[in-house]
Amino acid sequence: MVKQRVFSGIQPTGNLHLGNYLGALRNWVETQDQFENYFCVVDLHAITAPHNPETLGTDSSTIAALYLASGLDLEHCTIFIQSHVSAHSELAWLLNCITPINWLEDMIQFKEKAIKQGQNVNTGLLDYPVLMAADILLYQADKVPVGEDQKQHLELTRDIAVRFNHQFGKGKTILKLPDPMIRQEGARVMSLTDGTKKMSKSDPSDLSRISLLDPPEAIKNKIKRCKTDAVRGMTFDDPERPECHNLLSLYGLLAGKSKADVAAECLDLGWGQFKPLLTEATIAHLQPIQAKYQEIMAEQGYLESVLKQGREKAEAIAGETLEAVKDALGFSRR
Ligand code: TYM
Fold it and tell me: CB 221: neighbour CB atoms within 10 A?
């Protein structure tokens, strides 16, 4: 039986945090053997916000190594870097020319990030979702596993594909419509310093997030200093206690325990008793990932060879879609 195709990506803006891991990467690992998978480090997206040219390249390698360290298996997955496959930028341009500006102006993430960029909002930030649509549509992906915050971008991707097929497909489906894959648990991991805000790479406070490569001491310190409340006893169900809900959810996901088990275990605990449990579970979960990461980075040439093979496989598929799109648009053949 032919497997359905999966595509997803993460930006190389600094390190990966628990939101990226629990909302996306962990789910890729869990379902990888059911699908034919393409996982990309989306470095072209990373320059839509101010970035450091000195670290962009090494950050991309770090993320690719973390994909492998978290358990992605090359038997099931193709791993590559977005800017290595020029079809991504090219299809984004072609799709730009059929995407109404007001669709992009309506994107929640654009509005939020534009506020942060202030007076100098760059065109790339507005165009971010078109590049994301190009990423997905190039691989004719069936499924796109992401966190909750990407749902609107996936709806836009489908709208762009429908519009393209309708205007230029002559009755054929040139671009396949992808479905989002959003798991309930972990789809929205919140900040450690404010349980009403998403855990994010762009939060100025490092204390707000746990990164996959944080050493045990840093993890301990961040959990020790995270926001709590004055109530004794832990519950998922009190809307007035967002931090409690978030940290219990993290504990369940990292310790591999069900919500019911966590609720029962923590019902009568005070914060002082709960925090060491969460700390221990987090360190124990991340330890093997960190060890594997060190191994991968120590093996001279290994990562480069993974990314080279990934690029070659990705280029072959992306090239076919790009040709089909250019044909449909009526470009002269080379
Ligand atoms: P990025 O790098 O911002 O996020 C990568 C993935 O992590 C998820 N995520 C979260 N999940 C749960 N809780 C959080 N606090 C949290 N923060 C982030 C995101 O939902 C995402 O799945 N635009 C994409 C990158 C991208 C992409 C693509 C994804 C570019 N092209 C094509 C899928 C397909 C993004 O959000 O990156």
Answer: 14
Answer whether 69's CB lies under 8 Å from 302's CB.
no
H or E element in which residue 8 lies: strand 5-10
Q: Count of CB atoms within 10 A of residue 52's CB?
A: 9
Q: What residues contact residue 238 under an 8 Å CB cut-off, 6+ apart? A: 231, 244, 245
Selection from 20, 28, 313, 5 nearest residue 179 by Cα: 5
- CA–centroid distance, 302 to ligand 1, in Å, is 26
3-state secondary structure of 118: coil
Closest CA to 12 of 41, 50, 55: 41
Query: Catalytic one among 143, 201, 222, 227?
Result: 201
Q: Are 88 and 135 in contact (CB under 8 A)?
A: yes
For 90-103, write each residue's pLDDT tens digit: 999 999 999 999 99
Phi, psi of 41 (to 5 degrees): -95, 110
Taking the centre of ligand 1 as the mean of its atom positions, its distance from the CA of residue 232, in whole angstroms, is 34
Coil, strand or helix: which one is 284?
helix
Q: What is the DSSP string of 11-36?
A: --SSS-BHHHIIIIIHHHHHHGGGSE
Ligand 1 atom nearest 147 alpha carbon: 20
The pTM of the whole model exceeds 0.90? yes
The pLDDT tens digits of the residues spanning 214-225 come to: 999 999 999 999
Residue 170 DSSP symbol: T
Q: Which residue is closest in CA terms to ligand 1's atom 24?
A: 10
Q: How far apart are CA 189 and CA 26, in angstroms?
A: 13
Q: Which atom of ligand 1 is nearest to the CA of 153?
A: 23
Alpha-carbon radius of gyration of the chain: 21
CB neighbour list of residue 122: distance below 8 Å, 6 or more residues apart: 48
CB within 8 A of 56, min separation 6: which ones? 12, 43, 46, 47
